[in-house]
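Reminder to self: tokens first, then the designed residues, so the page reads top to bottom the way the pipeline ran.
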């Protein structure tokens, strides 16, 4: 009888030990909540926060369900100048950021399309130590003033950024 009780105690300890390891390992990869200050390679600053809450899923539109997780919440928008091949310059352009659901590992990769046919891409990784990094890029269309109907494509360079929890 004693040997049977000992075997059950060992089996329960092994099962509980294997259940505890994945839970603690996965929890350590979550992004650290708080307010972040970022500096871009274009020399401009912007701020965002990461909060554990119910927020929008990565794709907007339609009748989608809100999800609980770590939310990327923009406070200010990053700005930059964008120079077209013709020399035309868009001064003080802002990359529009939206509240988004980060993955459990603190990552977000989101394409953007605006009504004026401007396209962009935003990528960020927020780690558990309060650091973040990423990049954004944009492709704008410039219509010449001379009455031309063919727009000029004006791609920005990849604008990188790093951020620290404030």
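Designed residues (166 positions):
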């Amino acid at each position: 009888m004693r040997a049977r009780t000992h075997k059950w105690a060992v089996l329960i300890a092994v099962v509980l030990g294997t259940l505890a390891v994945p839970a603690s390992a996965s929890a350590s990869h979550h992004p650290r909540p708080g307010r972040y200050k970022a500096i871009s390679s274009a020399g401009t600053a912007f701020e965002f926060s990461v909060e554990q809450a119910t927020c929008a899923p990565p794709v907007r539109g339609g009748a989608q369900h809100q999800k609980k997780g770590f939310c990327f919440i923009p406070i200010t928008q990053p700005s930059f100048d964008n120079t077209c091949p013709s020399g035309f310059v868009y001064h003080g352009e802002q990359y529009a950021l939206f509240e988004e659901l980060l993955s459990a590992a603190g990552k977000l990769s989101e394409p953007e399309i605006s009504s004026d046919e401007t396209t962009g891409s935003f990528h960020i990784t927020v780690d558990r130590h309060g650091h973040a990094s990423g990049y954004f890029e944009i492709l704008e269309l410039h219509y010449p003033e001379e009455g031309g109907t063919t727009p000029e494509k004006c791609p920005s360079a990849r604008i990188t950024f790093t951020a620290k929890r404030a």
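Helices lie at 2-27.
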